[in-house]
Specification:
The structure is a homotetramer of 399-residue chains. Chain A has 399 residues and is an alpha+beta fold. The first copy, chain A, has three domains: 117 residues, Acyl-CoA dehydrogenase/oxidase, N-terminal domain (Butyryl-Coa Dehydrogenase, subunit A, domain 1, Orthogonal Bundle), CATH 1.10.540; 112 residues, Butyryl-CoA Dehydrogenase, subunit A, domain 2 (Beta Barrel), CATH 2.40.110; 150 residues, Up-down Bundle (Butyryl-CoA Dehydrogenase, subunit A, domain 3), CATH 1.20.140.10. Helix content of chain A is 50%, strand content 15%. In chain A, strands 2-3-7-6 form a four-stranded antiparallel beta sheet, with no helix packed on it. In chain A, strands 1-4-5 form a three-stranded mixed beta sheet, covered by helices on one side. In chain A, strands 8-9 form a two-stranded antiparallel sheet. In chain A, a hairpin with a 2-residue loop joins strand 2 and strand 3. Chains in contact: A-B, A-C, A-D, B-C, B-D, C-D. At the A-B interface, strand 8, helix 12 and helix 13 of A face strand 8, helix 12 and helix 13 of B. Chains A, B, C, D: InterPro entries: Acyl-CoA_dehydrogenase, Acyl-CoA_Oxase/DH_mid-dom, Acyl-CoA_Oxase/DH_mid-dom_sf, AcylCo_DH-like_C, AcylCo_DH/oxidase_C, AcylCoA_DH/ox_N, AcylCoA_DH/ox_N_sf, AcylCoA_DH/oxidase_NM_dom_sf. Chains A, B, C, D: One of its GO terms (molecular function) is flavin adenine dinucleotide binding.
Chain lengths: 399, 399, 399, 399
Amino acid sequence: MDFAHSAKAAEYLARVTEFIATEIEPVEPEYHRELARLDDPWTVLPVIPELKAKARERGLWNLFLPSVSGLTNVEYAPLAEAMGRSAIAPEVFNCNAPDTGNMEVLHLYGSPEQQERWLTPLLDGEIRSAFCMTEPDVASSDATNMAATAVVKGDEVVLNGRKWFSTGIGHPNCKVLIFMGLTDPDAHKYLQHSMVLVPLDTPGVAIERMLPVFGRHDEPFGHGEVSFTDVRLPASAIIAGPGRGFEIAQGRLGPGRIHHCMRLIGLAEKSLDLACKRASTRTAFGKPLVNLGGNRERIAQARIAIEQARLLVLHAAWKIDTVGAMAARSEISQIKVAVPNMALGVIDMAIQLHGGAGMTDDFPLAAAYSGARSLRLADGPDEVHLGVIARLELKKHLS
Amino acid sequence: MDFAHSAKAAEYLARVTEFIATEIEPVEPEYHRELARLDDPWTVLPVIPELKAKARERGLWNLFLPSVSGLTNVEYAPLAEAMGRSAIAPEVFNCNAPDTGNMEVLHLYGSPEQQERWLTPLLDGEIRSAFCMTEPDVASSDATNMAATAVVKGDEVVLNGRKWFSTGIGHPNCKVLIFMGLTDPDAHKYLQHSMVLVPLDTPGVAIERMLPVFGRHDEPFGHGEVSFTDVRLPASAIIAGPGRGFEIAQGRLGPGRIHHCMRLIGLAEKSLDLACKRASTRTAFGKPLVNLGGNRERIAQARIAIEQARLLVLHAAWKIDTVGAMAARSEISQIKVAVPNMALGVIDMAIQLHGGAGMTDDFPLAAAYSGARSLRLADGPDEVHLGVIARLELKKHLS
Amino acid sequence: MDFAHSAKAAEYLARVTEFIATEIEPVEPEYHRELARLDDPWTVLPVIPELKAKARERGLWNLFLPSVSGLTNVEYAPLAEAMGRSAIAPEVFNCNAPDTGNMEVLHLYGSPEQQERWLTPLLDGEIRSAFCMTEPDVASSDATNMAATAVVKGDEVVLNGRKWFSTGIGHPNCKVLIFMGLTDPDAHKYLQHSMVLVPLDTPGVAIERMLPVFGRHDEPFGHGEVSFTDVRLPASAIIAGPGRGFEIAQGRLGPGRIHHCMRLIGLAEKSLDLACKRASTRTAFGKPLVNLGGNRERIAQARIAIEQARLLVLHAAWKIDTVGAMAARSEISQIKVAVPNMALGVIDMAIQLHGGAGMTDDFPLAAAYSGARSLRLADGPDEVHLGVIARLELKKHLS
Amino acid sequence: MDFAHSAKAAEYLARVTEFIATEIEPVEPEYHRELARLDDPWTVLPVIPELKAKARERGLWNLFLPSVSGLTNVEYAPLAEAMGRSAIAPEVFNCNAPDTGNMEVLHLYGSPEQQERWLTPLLDGEIRSAFCMTEPDVASSDATNMAATAVVKGDEVVLNGRKWFSTGIGHPNCKVLIFMGLTDPDAHKYLQHSMVLVPLDTPGVAIERMLPVFGRHDEPFGHGEVSFTDVRLPASAIIAGPGRGFEIAQGRLGPGRIHHCMRLIGLAEKSLDLACKRASTRTAFGKPLVNLGGNRERIAQARIAIEQARLLVLHAAWKIDTVGAMAARSEISQIKVAVPNMALGVIDMAIQLHGGAGMTDDFPLAAAYSGARSLRLADGPDEVHLGVIARLELKKHLS
């Protein structure tokens, strides 16, 4: 195991960290306040394109994509952690979900036409995208439950169904979504589905509502419930051809989970920072909070938990880098379970140390909690990943 | 120990349960949807006064108040549990916080004038009220930190300071608040504070903002941050006279915590119901969710946790009824710690079994989670109550 | 719910508590030290029969048996708790497992001859007994796995098989055991097994070894592995006739679990006592341990956990008393899961507060831990009981 | 971070693993059974010196000592893990505590005479040693509580006091112990204590008793309570001179904790192996245990927990290797807390999956539990280490 970084990676980390500290953190609280004051918060405030332009100018742009940055997963991981401390940093560096995953898909599987039409403006940060996989009417943790269809008819593909938790679809710049649907129920179970590129303004596509997630709409990007009614597209909109949806989905998730998890670790570190500061400065019963009851123990346990989680993610990244996502399935599922739960524990502790203020939006903790909680369900609930880990573990004993 | 109910209490329970099932539950989902659609959700929808009128007509009104209902705490507890299953039921029966606590205070300590002006319309459900104790600038878990002042000058009392988490202050019918402030810093530590009745429209009272709690404003009642700037009132607005604020606050909390905790138990039962239903009907990997992995164990653990919590609250109620709130301090702190944490565990489990839907407002679970979480801080954080319990426990060993 | 005690029960409790405090506790430490010094610890030290005689003389004898004491389960429960504080008290009052369960079986199902031969000397405390149900070669949590046989041939019953965790079989006074085996594999699944009374000296019965349980042999009673090879007995040795073993086993367990759980609660209370004393008197870093870190919080959490567990057991006892063990299946399984886990947490905390001493036998904590741990497996592992609770919970939602 | 191994380290690991698999594991169960059958289990069975000779012959000897093996802490760690799977392997490779720590001390601080007299036979595996630091009468977690004295009088040092948990002192080959005592109460707090080499047969040294640890005496090495009464030794028996005890103790602990923790990880892996095997082969309710309830989830959680713990230890080892034990204080305390607790969880789960058998000594699980539990107290209880971690964490925020 070797989690060491190249000189280039170390330099990127230093520059990203400095950019966040000097350009983003000073303006972020006001960004959130201003957004909250808007009548229509589904708005891109001017500070975002300004920051994006600066980041791009400095070469801190699309670093998630190995072909751009030359970074391995192990090397990109600390950048993702750094970005995770801020709610807007990922977008500023054009490294935000779900666009990163969609760009990877287009990069790896897109046709030249698909790349030109969609990948180029995504890489330029000019448009945004969504990913439509989860469905409201079935337990989507079991992919074979998927009910939406992408039927090839002649030189067209026809989409029907209903999706939800389509993150980013509310963003004013969202122009395209990737739809996953059933193409051939008679094919091998991993060859039944297709992924299709769908311009958002295609007839038959309707955003039925934007979903509250733990009471928040997460403007301006949001999470949509989207219906597809006889949506007709040329067959060339299918990514990599019919029946390859499952294969693409699998590949999409490995690095994506590294990113999600490292961002959560950044969020947990930020929360622990805030907890330490608050507990050192607030006083009750004649002492700073940090000297009351079990507060120091909780801070220490948070430190241990964060360290373990970070090492586990780096280890999974190292496995993806060295043996590939397929051979790292257990490790990827391990971080998918461990990291959100760890982050929830740390954030919850920080909220408690902040008293009532921790529940408001005066601190980023309450929003962080909701975000972390959603990641115990997004991309497969804990329980499904535990099942994967157990299956691979038990396999070692069959012989 | 005797947690048995009189025939009268049993009859009340049957009638309250039936009212909720037939009058409230059928209309509640649409109530929430309608409220969410309003441009100004700080509105009392017509269904609320209609339901209130019906409840009052049937004699299911102000049952929380022993002098009205003749019920002990043990007897009222299951009514509070039943009401806790619905977000609006407590108000429908005129049994909602913080009005219940304020009515108790006025009933026990109010002058005839105070009672006529404020208690009567509160008991009639015509107005609502708020309670202003917690402050944003200090750790309010330590009451001696309180910075707001209620200074008696001649025949006036002058209020200054800033309060927050003043629940209910956003309600269109909120007309009065109870303010707690420091009157005499030189008095004995339990005789320094006063409680003052403040009409909401008194000059110098300003609602600075309505606070989001885990991203929700909880319209139409809400939680306010309120400033008091040279607010002048006649000294007769002081409840029970200067210096008795602490005494009143203590008395206010015992039964109030029973109510809060029993409502949470109702919420936990409701969440377990929903979890069982969802897990029995959704299918993944060819089985209902309930037959997958540890789901049955989690349902069983939830059942155990709820039973234990309910018995603990009944036990505390029985102690209040038989030996008084003072002698039941440990028991009251025990439920204050145990019940919200229990409820959070059950609700979180139910959310997980609902998948993404559990995070939206299609089910009452996400809102329930935020509400239960806030009760780990409201009325004193877990840590303070654990300290009380430990102190009383260790005292047994001193001799 | 009514957990109140009759005057008679209250009086018994006062007398049992006083007897333990004045007669047992002063001599118990030396009892254990003396036993540990013996070359052959499978010995009944004279103090035991002396204490038994005293207890019997004072009428504190066989109180577990309703027909003797006239106590309900709710009333007996606090006596069991009191006895649970001492490792030898249950035997002193002739209220120790597994004899209590065996006496109940004989009382309810024994023939007059069986009662005269075995129940009378057991009630007199002259002999002891064992119960042989669990088997080493199968997962005994599933009763249908049972492999031992009790085949009726003419007027004889022939036993074959291997049992283990036969508690008490090492006791010098153990004269009889109850054996459970398969009689008729073709009968209804609840009518296949029989219980047979087996004198310990019957040919074919061999104690293969005494089992260490977490490194302890629990002398002088112990836990045996016992083989049965063509053990022939008259058919009259079958309790209540062939095929009724399952029915008897079910009935045996309800009150027995109340006893086990209440004794564990006594043990947890004792452990919390010790923890409070130790933590108040030992000093580190200039403070008593109780003022360091999270120690007070842990003491408070232990208090909450014990209170909840006791109430849960009383509730289960009340259900057995009022609607019977069959209707109280969920409640009985609930305490079977909740109480040992609670006790383990409290004892472990107490061990930690005792430092190294807590691991030795200078305090009863290390032995208490092993004993409590074994009760997460004995009479069915946690997981099986959780399954029962979940099944009954989900049934409420089928309609 | 770089946890990679040199070719030499990888080769050692392969050879140690193979030696354990082919030479130790096949004979270990019979070793334990034979020892348990002995009247006097304080005996070195012949298989031990035979295995030691073989290991030494193959160059798998004293690998813990960098000056012998040339291995870093990161490189030695997996060897310790491999040895941790067996109760006797550490001794076979002459890598067992407390001798390893004592050899390190002698290697780093011993005079040539001390090294010749004690280090040489220890390195040869001819004698064993003990370490006497913890005291029965004070909370030894606070080093300043130490009451034993090592007073320099002329050219002699005189020892008085009482120590316990002196591991290894019962071993027939134990010839020397290292005693720590107070020399100069007026010196700076880190310069008050001395370490003294004490031949076991020195007049005034008395093993008062061998301590049971969770009911086990851990023969043939054991844990002693030792009294020192006017024990007189030449001043040359002091290691590195008077007043350096604290400094030596600190240095002794860093690598020692890596060893302990890695052995625990080996034990946890072994336990998980056993759990997987048992749960795959035992059947209840018509299914292998592994397909019942939450068993797979528990196996998965164990895998996650082990991976995180191992990475945390490797990280601490890497810090010791690269920046030294002083700069790695937080990391060392982190593993001291995290690893024993992790191991306890995994072992407990494995015990539960083994049913009653898990509590006996038919499997190494019950003994493993006791051993792991003792490590939550040995070398400082969890709570003290959490305090260290919190202090260092909070320091980052002072500025």
